[in-house]
Amino acid sequence: MPADAPRLNRSIAQTRPGIGIVHLGLGAFYRAHGALYVEEAMAASGGHWGIVGVSLRSPATRDALAPQGYAYTAVERRPDGSHPRVVEVLDHVLVAPEDPAGLIACLAHPGVRIVTLTVTEKGYCHEPATGRLDLAHPDIIHDLADPLPRSAPGVLVRALAARRAAGHRPFTVLTCDNLPHNGPLVRGVVLDLAQRIDPGLADWIAREGRFPATMVDRIVPATTRDDIDALARQTGVLDLSPVVHEPFRQWVVEDDFVDGERPDLAAAGATLVADVTPFEDMKLRCLNGTHSALAYLGYLAGHETIADTVADPSFAAYVKGLWANEIVPVLTPPPDTDLAAYCGQLFDRYANPAIRHRTWQIAMDGSQKLPQRILATLDDSLAAGRVAPGLMLAVAGWMRYVGGVDENGRPIDVRDPLADRLRALCDGAADPADRVRALLGVREVFAEPLAAALEPGIITAYLRLVELGARRAVEELS
Predict the structure, then answer these.
(1) Residue 1: its pLDDT value, please?
(2) Cα 467–430–446 angle (5° rounding)?
(3) What pLDDT sits at residue 198?
(4) How many helices and strands in the chain, by DSSP H and E?
(5) Domains of the chain, each with CATH number or no CATH
(6) Of all helices (H) and strands (E), which one includes residue 56?
(7) pLDDT-flagged residues of the chain (< 70)
(8) Handedness of CA 254, 257, 263, 267 (dihedral sign)
(9) Is residue 196 a contact partner of residue 134, using CB atoms and an 8 Å limit?
């Protein structure tokens, strides 16, 4: 890195647009995906859709971006090299715990017409197995009693209440997280919480609010210090908060906004549809499902990244078999979509050596991800009388991973909302089969009828995993 590299800053000549969007959960993914679409939509068709980012927990993102005028670099990583662009769509960033009242006031401003979210699966404070609001969640307990909320659903409800009290229209809630039926899901948790706070508010939100479903797709690895240094050497400018992403991107959006107000997302390449479901099912099962399978089993086999994992012929054959034999046969494709070609494109994306998407990063929060990414396909397979040994092995891989010790006896830093409970269940099991039964009893993850149906197959897969190790267990399926 150049020792005297100047710090990246917003262009002095840049005229900031008016604020139209507030984004909750300002992480790398949204800055490498949704923010780029919004910036390009304004460049193509105008409009005041500047973005206020919100960190719901830590000030780290705000503190890194503020000295840069909230500008940052998005680096597209291709096999032929890195291609940076400076992004200036962020107006500023708020840190919710520092001033929750100020956040509600910002959201209540009538100029804010859309609230987008990337708060991860766990941020919706729901039960993954049912989709309902988790009333035992500590943040929900707090938000029911305190008008200054901590949770994303609490922020949405209190802000919508402030808008209703001021006589303003509601904003559109546009979730950008990888969840099945994500629009209806966030609508459900918001209405559940609102009903307990003010039934009249819940009625108003149900009648006037809009919660369009979306499907988002772009691989965005965690930014490393090496990425920061490489960008500084390439550009001669120091950016302490860049994002790195693959060339591919996709955003499918249900075209259902309050009063029809939205940026011209189609001009930026987004797909506006009446029903997102076939697109989100395709992505959650074909991409996210195999990503998780490769993450757990690849990590156990000693592979650091997804590209490293699929460079291993055994894992390449495994993931191709998952698509061809277990996932695609029980999946309804979106209109005019060739699922075999889509999966081939996914493999090429996984194999991109310029994208170092670490298996440990994808392995995070598995208890929140498994139901929609893998268990839904297993449920459909069982209903169709099909066998799915590869996906059973993926679940067994998760079960071994959350035990906190890898195949060589080394500790695993398991990051999951249920990590302590999962580890205790594993440690308390009498034998491998007992461990499987104990973990299948976690109702937040496994619904009871599905757990009973899966038990024999997952016990078999887990025993093979313990006996052979991840790589040989995968190889045995090919």
Answers:
(1) 58
(2) 80
(3) 98
(4) 22, 11
(5) 19-273 (3.40.50.720), 277-477 (1.10.1040.10)
(6) none
(7) 1-3, 12-14
(8) positive
(9) no
Residue 298: closest CA among 327, 280, 281, 318: 318
DSSP 8: P
Distance CA 91, CA 53 (A): 8
Q: What is the DSSP letter of 136?
A: T
Question: Whole-angstrom Cα distance, residue 329 to residue 386?
Answer: 9
Alpha-carbon torsion (328, 334, 335, 337), positive or negative: negative
Determine which helix (DSSP H) or strand (DSSP E) holds 161, and give its type and residue range: helix 152-166
Residue 123 has what pLDDT? 95
398 CA to centre of own chain: 18
In this prediction, residue 156 carries a pLDDT of 98
| 12: exposed, middle or buried (Cβ count in 10 Å: 0-12, 13-18, 19+) | exposed
Q: Name the token pair of 221.
A: 């690895």
For 294, the enclosing helix (H) or strand (E) is helix 289-300
| Overall pTM > 0.70 | yes
pLDDT of residue 12: 63
CB within 8 Å of 89: residues ≥ 6 apart: 17, 35, 36, 38, 39, 42, 49, 50, 51
Sheet holding 19-24, edge to edge: 90-95, 50-55, 19-24, 114-117, 172-175
Residue 400's nearest CA partner among 356, 464, 349, 342 is 464
